[in-house]
Amino acid sequence: MRGCRRHRPSDPHCPICAGRYARRVARSIVASKPRNLAAVEFKTDLDIGEFDPFRVAVRNLIDFQRRECRWWRDFRLWGWLSSDGHVRGVAALDALQPDEFVDAFLRWPMSVRRIGVEEVEAAVVAAVRPGVIASAGRGYQQVKLVIGPKGVARVAAPVISVQRRVIEPMPVLVG
Ligand SMILES: [Zn+2]
After folding, report:
1. Rounded distance, CA 13 to CA 143, Å?
2. Average of per-residue pLDDT across 99-128
3. Domain encompassing residue 48
């Protein structure tokens, strides 16, 4: 992601880069038509090395919830590791109640506060502003956790293959 005039990619410790990044992320969150928004904070104690296993654990937990209950299907989460070891961000709870979300994550204490669409940017800024976000070099990839809705690719894939079959048959590979 492009940062300010001096930083490409973005430097999370530059206020201009951080502001641009927060605006861009907030815009894409709002454009995804989120329902039931909340500002979330995992009260964890993670360093940068522990964040990756944490991301995997959160993904696995949400995959598990989605297999058990369809109400998790359109749940979405955008989070960033903070330098105090917490993970702050925004969730679209969709069909879930805040306590159902918290109950699923009992292994990590957390706070959930309902917000409106107009508060998304402030919630992202609160997570990514310099001095809050964890230090991990340039860009946000290493300190970011994004959980998208389930089934977007799966819904799109059959449509494409049907069209392709009509226009030009796919080669059949044998062996
Ligand atoms: Zn910058």
Report:
1. 13
2. 94
3. 15-147
Does residue 165 register a pLDDT over 80?
no
Give residue 149's pLDDT.
86
On whether residue 108 sits in a domain, the answer given is yes
What spacing in Å lies between the alpha carbon of 110 and ligand 1's midpoint? 31
Question: Using CA atoms, how far apart are residues 3 and 5, in angstroms rounded to an integer?
Answer: 7
C-alpha 129 – ligand 1 centre gap (Å):
12
Do the domain assignments include residue 30?
A: yes
| CB count in 10 Å sphere of residue 95 | 14
How far, in Å, from the CA of 22 to the mean position of ligand 1? 13
Whether 36 contacts 96, CB under 8 Å: yes
Cα 15 to averaged position of ligand 1 atoms, centre (Å): 7
Residue 141 covered by a domain: yes
Distance 100 CA to ligand 1 centre (A): 39
What pLDDT was estimated at residue 90?
98
